[in-house]
Amino acid sequence: MATYLHFAPAIALAVAIGPRTVGWRLTLAGAFCAVLPDADFALVTLGLDRYSGPYGHRGFMHSLGFALALGAFGALWAGPGRGRQLGAAAFLALCTLSHPLLDGLIDRGICNAWWWPLDGARHCLGWRPIPMRGVGLFGAQRFQLELLWIGGPLLALANAGMLLRRLWRWARPARVPAGARRLPGAAEPGGTVRSPAPGTRWGGAGAAAAPAAARDCPRAQRQLRAEAMRAFATALRLHRHGQWREVNGAAVQP
Prior knowledge:
The chain is an all-alpha fold. It has two domains: 8-171, no CATH class; 178-252, no CATH class. The protein contains nine helices and two strands, in the order H-H-H-H-H-H-H-H-H-E-E. It has helices spanning 8-17, 24-35, 40-45, 64-77, 82-105, 140-171, 178-181, 205-213, 218-241, and strands spanning 245-247, 250-252. Strand 1 and strand 2 (250-252) form a beta hairpin. Helix 1 (8-17) runs antiparallel to helix 2. The longest helix has 32 residues, at 140-171. It is elongated.
């Protein structure tokens, strides 16, 4: 088993996905789920099963079924919203599953009961590259090996996720919701800029709602700010002169 870094996959996965999707509460819950399977030591200590039994170490708590059940419980805890529930369930299930996966990649210890409750037999992975044979359960050597073989790949995963998110935001076209474009005094589809209705203040609720509607797109935010400034400048000119003027080659009306 990994002595020090069983919690790390949850942190790396949360960083890769992004803090706007995985909040700090869900991240802490994922870290808890990632270390929870080793609680089966308590069952062995209490004499409820032998070490290699189905309820012993690396038994049912190191199975796919346990990870899915824990994810389903997390969906209930996530609150209303199908998307939020499915996301929390998938995240917590992956964090739980990271524990037996790391144990299976270590070249020492018994194998996991992957298919419990369908099959209580232990199954080993065909590839166990993490060299822990002959290394103590605690100590500096153990910590250094875990940093190299576990921390290094997880750091690469987190950075790859952040890079992909940045590339996606850069490549995605700046789409502003239709309601966010119709600010008081903003240009209409025909190019005409009209002053606000009587009793409507420039920069009112519509202007405040526009950046909120496009808060997930920095390019759209910049576009909205520039559009609002142009609309505000146009409004000042219209209210000052009170007559028809040409703005960017289009007729405007006070």
